Amino acid sequence: MGKDSAGTTIRFDNRTIEEFAASLRLSPRSVVSYKRCLAYFFSYLEETGAVRPESGDIAAYREALSASGKRAATVHNYLAAVKSFFRWAAAEGLYRDIAGKVSHPSVDHAPRRKTLTGAQMKRVLESIDRGDVRGKRDYALLALMVTGGLDTLEAARATAGDLKRSRTGPVLHIRGVRGGVVRIPPRTWRALVDYLEARGPVNEEAPLFAGLSNRTLGRETHMSTSSISRIVKEAFRGAGYDDVNLTAQSLRFTGVKLALQGGERLEDVQRFARHKTIRTTFLYEQAEPAAQEHGEAMKEGQG
Predict the structure, then answer these.
(1) 296 in a domain, yes or no?
(2) Residue 86 shares a structural domain with residue 118
């Protein structure tokens, strides 16, 4: 529950989303979109611990959306939902309108997402020092994000219990996605086992990728999406790829593009990427490469 400086309170939960959605005079499709964007924002507030958000938190959210690799037009839509929500909350006397003065990003200058080749991705992974638990975690994180097509929120939400063994091998169940299950290739699985063994015993509800700053306090917390973005960016730079348009989202784009280039059926890649439409999957193939570099594509099942 959040309380603003005027003393009014509001719960940033699904019930509030439904109450807000009931007030919208939009098409059913737009209402669903607004609800999805608002749920994403509430998740961000929870992850960052912003129980009493202010205007600065809205601006930080805008920057986090951009840093995750979302296009300016997408960020604009996500922010529009937040702005509409706080206008409604102010009108209902539930919370101040803290989003009204936060500007939208410029849609005309949207950054283009870039991808890596298989050889470049291999170079990034090999540049990570795996001599301690932090390095093992970072290596396993990047390997899983690219071979599983994960975005930062999916990686941040994952728990140790989401790792399962199926008849066809190890898989990861994606939280919040119906039917979201990704196969974990042998090399990535070995990296995950290496990391978890170095980390020590964990229960099923423990975060799969835990922040290390609280371990000395006897507790582990989920990493934030911004922390994951920073780790990925540092790994790119460590391998010599310092491009403003290479972000954590580039790992997901790379995984999807490599699967398409490897000859996988478009429908299979759609399921792998958890896309609602094949058109979205096809657009991933148009992502711009980070550099003109030849090399064999990294096969997902490489062992």
Answers:
(1) no
(2) no
Statement to judge: residues 37 and 185 lie in one domain: no
- Please check whether residues 43 and 135 belong to one and the same domain: no
Q: What is the pTM of this model?
A: 0.60
Q: Which of 87, 109, 131 is the last residue of a domain?
A: 109
Same domain, 146 and 29: no
Whether 159 and 264 share a structural domain: yes
Q: Are 256 and 149 in contact (CB under 8 A)?
A: yes
- In 3D space, the residue among 148, 159, 142 whose CA is nearest the CA of residue 230 turns out to be 142
Three-state secondary-structure class, residue 302: coil
Q: Which two tokens stand for residue 36?
A: 């999805």
List Cβ neighbours of 94 (8 Å cut-off, separation of 6 or more): 8, 9, 10
How many angstroms separate the CA atoms of 223 and 219, rounded?
13
Q: What residues form DSSP beta bridges with 169? A: 166
Q: Are 254 and 121 in contact (CB under 8 A)?
A: yes
Q: Which two tokens stand for residue 252?
A: 């997901």
Q: Tens of pLDDT along the chain (303 residues)?
A: 545 444 456 889 999 999 999 999 888 888 888 999 999 999 999 999 988 999 999 999 999 998 888 877 788 889 999 999 999 999 999 999 999 999 887 654 433 568 899 999 999 999 999 999 999 999 999 999 999 999 999 999 999 999 999 888 999 999 877 668 889 999 999 999 999 999 999 899 999 999 876 554 456 788 999 999 999 999 999 999 998 889 999 999 999 989 888 888 888 888 888 888 777 777 776 665 664 443 333 333 344
**Residue 79: which domain range?**
2-109
Cα of 247 vs its chain's centroid, Å: 11
Taking phi over 0 as left and psi of -120 to 50 as alpha, with beta for the rest, 49 belongs to left
